[in-house]
Amino acid sequence: MNQLRHFTMLAKRTLLIIAITLTLPYCTSIPTPNIGSQAPSNSLEEHAQLANSQGQYLKAAALYEKLARNTGDNEHFLTFAAESYLNAGDIDSAERVISSLPNQLANSSVNIQLLRSKILLKQGKAEQSLFAIETIDESILTNQQRIELHKLRSSAFFQSGNIFESARERVELDHLITEPSEKLSNQDKLIETLLLLSNQALEVFKASPSDPVTSWVDLAITLKNKTPNIIDWQQRYPQHSANTNFLPNFLQTKQNNNKPAGKVGVFLPNDGPYAKSAQSIRQGIISAAYALDNNQADVTFYDTSVTPITTLYQQALSEGVKTIIGPLDKRNVADLQLLNNQTIPIIALNNFDGAAPSQTVSLSLAPEDDVIQVASLAWLKGHQRALILTPQTKFGQRIATHFADVWQQFGGTVNDVQTYPSKTSDYSPSIKSVLNIEDSESRFKQLRNKLNLSMEFVERRRQDVDFIFLIASPRDGRLIKPQLRFFHAIKLPVFSISKIYDGTINPVANRDLDQVSFCDMPSLIEPTNYAELDTLSLTKQWGRLNSQSRRLFALGLDAYQSISHTERLKNSSFARFSGSTGVLSIKPNGEVSRQLTCATFKNGHIQSLGLAPQLEKTEYFNLLEKSPTPQTSHQTTPL
Question: What is this structure's pTM?
Fold first, then answer.
């Protein structure tokens, strides 16, 4: 009996196992958790997040790319990868990752569209960046996405020189941002942006009273006054968001900036090769001191052509100097850089090799500043292929090499470089060479000889270029531009540096420079629009100055004006100051950056194009002291 019961239980158990076995293949709609594959993905994501938080962006990007391959979640992880590459400054890899996504996915994902716009902005393609987010429906965005959208638009407008539209975007951001410190930061940038505009421009941009931008424009106009009537503005806008934190902070900073500079020591040579330049700078410093500090100005000049710079520094300290302006020449600046334990601020008038000491900034008129900004102007206009026409001088070689390096880092190409002898009257050999006119003539002669026919010949220039970068003095430029026109380059845009403009109103002579675009200090292009001091009136007090003396005079003005703004500019990467030589800001290495004003010649007159573009790509330049000569498509005189 027991044996029968045991057999029956065994049979039932066997039948149950068979039934379960037969049923299993039909149960695939309920997946079992894959514990083994889930754990590594989670671990990888944690490692990627950790790398990002520690600033190891390249490592994080590589991990996110691996996660995308492992999980198939391309939109999620490749977006993180591209963002990490951007944070690391690897724009090319960020673009590669985004470009690998299917177009349908990329065009339908708001996050990817925003990221693509950010990449284009980093590449210096401000207009394309705006176009990339033009079709986004803002009504479907989260508040954070809307903030990101308007930040991108503000940055793109600012980089392209559209100051007012950049400010308008920040007005919109003021309504969207709720976090107090972020809101205050945006308000700071909003006012800094509006203060770059002249009072005349601000009055023009005033909208209707109900437009939110009007109150901010009114505030900017009020703050431009030396004694702003803030109470009147607050009575007109009692509920304005600027009343909470922004105005108290701004007014405190302005009060600190308006304090007299104290005793200022100026290190300039009275004799030697830099004495003439020093005289114009000295005049600018004196004019600024008495215009800003009236009877409280206290300026002492020290002669660097006689006494070693280290000795002068100790003498200035012992005499109670609170700030030093100078020196001017590179050797003395280098000696000053070696001083240990600098205890007072120094505004050097030439660039340092490497980073400046903590108490020091450098303000100069280096022509390389012109090069980067005129290159930015050409790039923003969509040009890619350049020709360079430069004089056979060391200066010409230096500027041409620098432009070629900058242009290639933008992503453009230099298709030819041609030098010309300066101070001649016939530039046709160089112009014909750079435009390949001689090749056209050679082809015609071969064809005529082959056919043995009398044929009419019309010269043709090369068609593989978008513009010419011309390095020339006003005299050379006035002769070269008409000859370019004669050799069929009338529609080829020409860009140059400030050297081509002599700073005088001379429509008869300057008519030969028509359609040449360049960037120069605002006090020469729009003397009443940007600078806080009336540069034109102050210059006239010293009689008639030539263009170079006027530029150096403006340098002296800005060197003294900068004393009260240096700390503010050093503490904020967005802070600006409208000077005579440009809109000033300070880079992390202590170099004062000058945003120039661009212009073009039209009917012999200067027509302003507004502030020079400040393309974000220029932040990533790592220019070598000795840049390689650009590869050219034709045999030319080497740089």
Answer: 0.79
